[in-house]
Amino acid sequence: PVLRLLEAQLQDQRREHEEEMEALKNQVDLMQEELEKQQQAFLQTLQLSPEVQVEFGLQQEITRLTNENLDLKELLEKLEKNERKLKKQLKIYMKKVQDFEASQTMMPVERRPHERNMQVAVQRKEKDFQGMLEYYKEDEPLLIRNLIT
């Protein structure tokens, strides 16, 4: 039950990550469109006088860098918020797992359903085995000879 819960939550986080990746891809597409617009504007400025071209180019670059910095700050804040959220979730899940393990070790043996069955199964298997192979006592010299060769 705990592992299934953790798996489900991990899948939810994976899905959120994929959605974030899709949003970032869309953001990249928008940036490419903006770049194309800026290139067109740049071609138009080539027709202006050299002084106006320089001033216009600097204004465009300042605007672009300012927008890029704002976008990056926003992305950084999102990622930091997500990191804090994931760290909190991890602490909660680790605590749940520790509590679960502690409850399993403190529970009396007869009240542990799975462990009792496993112990019974182990007890049935523990017969008089002295190794990994089962053989008749009279076949022992043949077996040893085969193992050596």
TrEMBL record:
Residue stretches in coiled coil: 3-96
UniProtKB keywords: Coiled coil
Keyword field contains Coiled coil: yes
Taxonomy, superkingdom: Eukaryota
Name of the protein: MYO5B protein
Organism: Vidua macroura (Pin-tailed whydah)
Gene it is expressed from: Myo5b_1
